[in-house]
Amino acid sequence: MALFGSLFCRLVLGFVIVFLFLPILIVLTVSFSSSAVFAFPPPGFSLRWYASLANADSMLQAVWLSTQIAALSTAISLVLGTLCAIAITRGMIPGAKVVATFMASPLMLPGLVLGIAFLQAARDFGLRDTYSTLLIAHVVITMPFIMRTVLASLSLFDFAMVDAARMLGRSYPAALWTVLVPNILPGFVSGGLFAFIASFDNYPVSIFLVDVRTKTLPIQLLNQVEMSPDPTVAAISALLILGTIAALIVCDRLVGLKRMASI
Amino acid sequence: MSQQATALPPEAEAQHEPGYLAVSNVTKRFGAATVLDSLSLSVGRAEFVSLLGPSGCGKTTLLRLIAGLLAPDQGAIEVGGRDLTRVAAHRRNIGVVFQNYALFPHLTVAENIAYGLRAKGVPKAEQAKKVADALGLVRMEAFADRAVTALSGGQQQRIAVARAVVVEPSLLLLDEPFSALDRKLRETMQIELRHILRDLGITSIFVTHDQDEALVMSDRIAVMNEGRIEHLGTPSEVYARPKSLYTMEFVGQSSRIGGVVTGGRDGLVEIDTPFGLIRAPGHFLSGSKVVVGVRPEAIAAGEGPAGEYNTVRGTVAEVIYFGSRTLLHFRTAQDDDRLHVELNRLPDTVSPGVEMTVRWRVDDSRVFPAPAGDDR
Amino acid sequence: MTLARDDLAVASTAKPARWSFDAKALIAAPGLIFMGLAFAVPVLMLIGDSFVDRDGLSLAGYRKVLGDPYYIGIIGNSLQLACITTAVCLAVGYPAAWALARIRGVWQVILFALIFLPLTVSIVVKTFGLTIMMRRDGIINFLLVNLGFIERPMRLVFTEFSLYFGMVNVFLPFMILPLYSVMRMLDPRLLDASASLGAGPVHTFLRVTLPLTMPGVIAGGTLVFSISVAAYVTPGLLVGDRFMTMSQVMAKAYLNIRDFQLGASMAVIMLVISAALILASSYLVRTPGGERR
Ligand SMILES: Nc1ncnc2c1ncn2[C@@H]1O[C@H](COP(=O)(O)OP(=O)(O)O)[C@@H](O)[C@H]1O
Ligand SMILES: [Mg+2]
Fold first, then answer.
1. Which residue spans within chain B are E strands per DSSP?
2. Where are the alpha helices (H) located in B149-244, listed in sequence order?
3. Contacts of B282 (CB under 8 A, 6+ apart)
4. Does residue C57 sit within a domain?
5. Any bridge partners for residue A24, and if so which?
6. B204 falls in which pLDDT band (50, 70, 90)?
7. Which residues in C87-98 are b (16+ Cβ under 10 Å) and which e?
8. Range of the domain at C16
């Protein structure tokens, strides 16, 4: 009976993995199809959709914009969030628990609600520049990921090391930089990776903030899927998937995947 | 242990011109709690002073104030005539060995030691030489390129010391550096550290809650209690002539007998205790409630000449055998009164319940006012 | 990426030191000020907006939403979507997470990575893949026909089947990972102990396994429910206007019909649902039997 139970569970697990990978594999397959229709199985193999990417200007612009926004917002969140997390961990500010929850709470709000809030606020404050509005919103989106991982890393960090560095002649900021930063690097890497992915992949917030000429990749992709789905979309998606896997492998080499996921 | 302390060269104290480190009237509060209360401490150059007290009495706080990691609410801190009260921690040139060493796990042993030299901008070649010297000092030459996480507790301890002294600090602070080591290792490290620091001639403040450690290592001991220094003196002074009941009880074993002064003359007082009349040196008004303290090793079995000795009879409550010596406990109805007697050789007849006569020199008795709330 | 939202009570890592001002505390200022202005203020303004129309204070938005069976139905749709998605994810995710937690060694790492990887793939990309699968000439129909379940390909796009298939596909890892992290901590000897005391497998499951894994169930359930109740991309692409949800209404209110009060009211209602859910789950994990940490 127990044997049967564990066999059943393993079967479900196998089924789940196949199930989860189905749409991803489909996209990869279609991107190599020789045909413009998505029939299964595909009639032949070709790289033409990858070649046609070279001319997909609006798509490439969107990739570039999303990369910038994700990288910048992650970097800003890393700096602001880490400083805040230090103050929280060290009990430098009152109500540390409330502050920590507040800084991590954008993750708990529905994305569309956040997006609407940003849209309204940008209008009310007269903020017209799409790029900066997007960037500010994405800092808010990425902040919780940084807070969570950095707070978790800091809880394992011995702050006596910072004191030791100061007693050896480094100012407080220099001590943080030379001792704290290298020691919580795994937290930075995993938090930064999740933050980057969250920003790069964000649809519900960005949809309210983009304009005709400034579109992030998820918006542009969805547009294309709705308007004129062809394997070019699959090709760019395939590249995204490969890029993600590459990033995961690099980060895994740096800090270990299990460690990233468990934080 | 008292032998070791008294074996220090008698001029040890005289060598240290006082006032190299001067902590004057320092007060530190955390919110409503006053952790240090107008505390003053003066330490001579190259002196090794221990701060001894129970945990929570403010030892670490005092150390962090001297280091500059905390700012005092009142008072001043000077080292070598320079007022450091408002100087940032990283400009004080004070070395610290932390309780859990606080070694940098992302750096190797050698890089840990070089950290302070780099911060001070010492040229590379000189760095390497100083690091090698420091490693030699703590006998860790072979470990230069190891990861610090791969070291044992005692080895980490040595690296922490090397890292702190390699920058030639004007003062070295050590916060319970041996608390994470097992007893055997702790004892070797105590002696070794003492030798290293004496050779280097570094002025050191050493925090501990372990009285044996303080007695073994220190030139002087500052016994702390609730944010104040109760007694500052050489180990033998602190042990043999404690200034307060607190010091007497915190440092070493002691017997404690409550009583009321009934009279006195010639610098001696007579005290009525549950064990009978006891005489001790001191000046107290008749009727004062006092506590008499005696070290167990000062007490011997049998009667002594009446003029020089106190002789009492009591019932043995407990016999504790230590091998080289035996401790006898006498108790009275009041549980708080206890008489500990340390005997090198145990008379065959002694066992719990037996009546016995013991004696000690009148001069070996210390009298202190009874603590408030001690109403007998 | 969000593994267990109630872990957000991360502040337990903070030392409960009594506070006294320290100039170093200023390092928190930039982040706090930024989040105050860029996050708290807009959300508060949105809540404020829902109570205001052109003539000042009004509850017109709420009256419109809560008084109109059409909108009530839409709220019902969102809740139904979230409930079914959560239930299916739990039913499938529980045994899968159990197997994942019981396997040891290198296989655990590999299988864990395989569950984790799809999470990092863009939702738009996955949903795009799903729409291709659901086509008349897609893989689902291909399999169904070739396995002999149906004679001719049937229409799957824009059906509720494709909706739930897609929702579960996208959100299942959010259920498995919190379950897994609780089950991994579970001491297998407890189960042996229960069995050795003569308890049957069903009894062991109900009296030992389930109560001990309840925190994972609550964490995963809360997470999946709260993201699927607010899901927008997946339902939008898979069923579109045939199955209107609160998210669709909010997006339309702002992007098409420009009825801001309607959108704001809907947003606040969704906010209340999310907040209630999070409070409920943090209450549940605190009650005995559901203890965490
Ligand atoms: N940062 C702080 N905030 C509030 N109270 C503190 C702080 N640091 C120490 N204390 C309190 O001050 C007292 C003395 O602490 P400490 O100096 O660490 O004692 P010791 O080192 O002698 O064990 C303790 O009661 C402790 O609770
Ligand atoms: Mg201490």
1. 21-30, 33-43, 48-52, 74-79, 82-83, 94-97, 171-175, 204-208, 220-225, 228-233, 255-265, 268-273, 276-281, 289-294, 300-301, 309-321, 326-331, 338-343, 355-361, 366-369
2. 153-165, 183-200, 211-217, 235-240
3. B264, B267, B268, B269, B290, B367
4. no
5. none
6. very high
7. ebbbebbbbbbb
8. 2-49
Specify the pLDDT at position B206. Answer: 95
Tell whether C39 and C180 lie within a shared domain: no
Please say if the pLDDT value at position A92 is more than 90: no
Nearest to C72 by CA among C284, C266, C226, C291: C266
* Beta-ladder partners of A187: none
Task: Look up residue B214 and give its amino acid.
Answer: A
Q: Give the rounded percent of residues in chain A with a pLDDT score beyond 70.
A: 94
Residue C293 lies in a domain: no
pLDDT tens digits, one per residue of C37-66: 999 999 998 888 888 777 777 777 788 778
* One domain, residues C91 and C189: yes
Search chain B and give the residue with CA nearest A162. B102
Cα separation of C101 and C113, whole Å?
13
Q: Which residues of chain A lie closer than 8 angstroms to B93, CB-CB?
A: 169
- Ligand 1 atom with the smallest distance to the CA of B176 is 21
Cα separation, C262 vs C104, in Å, equals: 52
Residues pairing with B272 in the sheet: B260, B277
C179 and C37 fall within a common domain? no
If you average pLDDT over residues C203-207, what whole number do you get? 78
Distances (CA, A) of A189 to B101, B264, C10: 27, 78, 19
**What 8-state DSSP symbol labels residue A126?**
T
CA distances from C192 to A6, A151, C186 (A): 14, 37, 12
Q: Is residue C218 part of a domain?
A: yes
Residues 6 or more apart whose CB falls under 8 angstroms from that of B272 comprise: B259, B260, B261, B262
CATH number of the domain enclosing C263: 1.10.3720.10
pLDDT digits (tens, 9 = 90+) for C152-178: 777 877 788 889 999 999 999 989 988
Looking at the fold, whether C31 and C157 belong to one and the same domain comes out as no
For residue A247, pLDDT over 90 is answered with no
Task: Tell me: do C226 and C115 sit in the same domain.
Answer: yes
Structural domain count, chain C: 2
C215, C182 in Cβ contact below 8 A? yes
Q: What spatial distance separates the first Cα and last Cα of chain C, rounded to whole Å?
A: 21
Q: What is the ipTM of this complex?
A: 0.85
Same domain as C252, residue C206: yes
Angle at B352 between CA B351 and CA B354, to 5 degrees: 75
What pLDDT was estimated at residue B103?
A: 93
The span from the CA of C276 to the CA of B55, in Å, is 46
Interface mutation target, options C121, C196, C241, chain A, most CBs of A under 10 Å: C121
Q: Are C39 and C67 contained in the same domain? A: no
B-chain CB neighbours of C19 within 8 Å are: 31
Pick from A71, A69, A97, A103: nearest CA to A84? A103
Crossing angle of helices C41-49 and C260-286, rounded to 10°: 120
Topology of domain A56-262, CATH: MetI-like fold (1.10.3720)
Q: Which residues lie below 8 Å from residue C266, measured CB to CB, with a gap of 6+?
A: C65, C71, C246, C249, C250, C253
Q: B104 touching C, CB under 8 A?
A: no
Tell the residue number behind the tokens 């801190």, with chain if given: B77
C36 part of a folded domain:
yes
Considering the domain architecture, whether residues C77 and C20 belong to the same structural domain is answered as no
Predicted confidence at residue C10, as pLDDT, reads 35
User: Which helix (H) or strand (E) is C56 found in, with range?
Assistant: strand C56-57
The one-letter amino acid at C138 = G
Residue B18's identity, in one-letter code, is P
Q: Which residues of A touch C260 (CB under 8 A)?
A: 120
Could you give the CA distance from residue B2 to residue B11 in angstroms, rounded to a whole number? 17
Q: Say if A166 is an interface residue toward chain B (CB within 8 Å).
A: yes
Would you kindly state where each structural domain of chain A is located, as residue ranges?
56-262
